[in-house]
Amino acid sequence: MAEEQRALLGAEGGDGCGGSPGPPRALPAACDPRRLPHRLLVLALMCFLGFGSYFCYDNPAALQTQVQRVVFALGALFNTFWLMEVGRFIFGIGGESLAVAQNTYAVSWFKGKELNLVFGLQLSMARIGSTVNMNIMGWIYSRVQDLLGYAGPSTLGLALLIGGVTCLFSLSCALILAYLDRRAEKLLCKEQGKTGEVIKLTDVKDFSLSLWLIFVICVCYYAAVFPFIGLGKVFFIEKFRFSPQEASAINSIVYIISAPMSPVFGLLVDKVGKNIIWVLCAVVTTLASHIMLAFTFWNPWIAMCLLGVAYSLLACALWPMVAFVVPEHQLGTAYGFMQSIQNLGLAVIAIAAGMILDTRGYLFLEVFFSACVCLSLLAVVMLYFVNHLTGGDLNWSAKKRAKLQKAAASEAEEQERLRRQNEDDLAKLLPKADAFSLRNKYLSRLGAQLPGHYSSCFSTLAHRSVLK
Q: How many Å apart are CA 4 and CA 187, to the nearest integer?
């Protein structure tokens, strides 16, 4: 690691976080944390980190990590329902922690560069995992059933264990990513730039109004998307007289569209900026989609395609905004709190949606979802004005953001240059040790008793060298 650090910083003539100057050569592009090939490798690991999670997530018996997947699968294998519930509980603990870590990694590696694109790619890989799950798990179950010769808990359990291999793959990606992140911290001396502030749960009370509005947008928007998709199949069968196959196809179009469109929208937001405007467009489009489904009999494919486009756009523009309003040492807390509020809101909304559906029907349910989107729209408008009045950077253009970040980086480099120059000047003022003083220090360390006038003589010599 020390050799890599000298190779990385040697060309700059720096001391490499206090080390000795190294040879003026650079690391290979694939090993240099500052170079694009290495960052692309990290990006691939980030995306595949969530593949196993979402592969399992959209399976009714799905779990996140290898352990929870095994626990749940054993519950099905031994026909023990309570064990399956334990697996679901572990999923609730581990699945969202993974999402928080994934978001924090993305900000750490790509803030100020291609952050919106990275969030889009992560969402795209998540949706690919869901789509692969929907298309392959039934086939796996059939093959296991043919192998065992009967259907039952054992068949389901073995099918889930086979599906859990994707979590092993994601686990290996997580371990590699953790190593590369730690290595980059050492090579780039990120520890020196840290403020030393401790992460605490009480950081929540210091969150800005802009961040709380982002939380509100997140909860109200996703409350009108995920519960609707969960209940959508029967909705399309009853209102539009679709067959079960047609209803399943149109209900999954949101995720199918988000897979290719999320990276495209992420790149677009990176090039243009104006995150709040993009979030506003996504929320308005979602509201139009729900109104069409509630009050018209137009072809529902139109509304669902609009919903898929809006869902992809919002994820690319909303989640990166957290990094613009929160100090770096609070990012994990902020993303964790955002994820927790989102899941709490989804749990409450899912219960409320079921009660409305049972008592009032689908029309009132769609009105309820539209009301949730309206609350999200109100929060977006408030965020726009709060950001404008406080001089925030959430709605800056990409050019303005890049210009200011370049100026900030230049200022930081100048400060670092002055710090090193001051250290060099101070080193020149320090007295140089001669052979006599080095001999006395060596003898002292060995425990030898030196005459008293030796130490006074040494002090006088040191004093005279400083005066010179």
A: 7
233 CB neighbour count, 10 Å cutoff: 18
Q: Which residues pair with 273 in a beta bridge?
A: 397
CA 92 to chain centre: 17
- Dihedrals phi, psi of 351, to nearest 5 degrees: -65, -45
The three-class DSSP label of residue 447 is: coil
Question: What would the pLDDT profile of 82-109 be if each residue is shown by its tens digit?
Answer: 666 676 666 666 666 677 777 778 888 8
Task: Enter the pTM of the model.
Answer: 0.70
Q: Which residues of 150-187 are buried (b: 16+ CB within 10 A; e: fewer)?
A: eeeebbbbbbbbbbbebbebbeebbeebeebbeebbbb
Q: Tell whether the torsion through CA atoms of 130, 132, 138 and 144 is positive or negative.
A: negative
Amino acid making up residue 148: L
> Mind giving me the DSSP string for 17-32?
TTS----S----GGG-
425-449 pLDDT tens trace: 777 666 655 666 666 666 666 666 6
Q: For 143-278, where are the E strands, in sequence order?
A: none
Tokens, residue 335: 């993303």
Tokens matching residue 194:
């840290």
User: Tokens 């196959």 sit at which residue?
Assistant: 245
Distance CA 189, CA 18 (A): 10
- Please give the backbone phi and psi of residue 397, each rounded to the nearest 5 degrees, phi first: -75, 160
Which are the contacts of 101, defined by CB distance < 8 A and separation ≥ 6? Answer: 49, 174, 332
Which alpha helices (H) appear in 360-397, and where do they start and end?
362-389
CB atoms within 10 A of CB 264: 15
| Contact in structure between 204 and 330 (CB atoms under 8 Å) | no
Distance, in Å, from the CA atom of 289 to the CA atom of 316, rounded to the nearest integer, reads 19
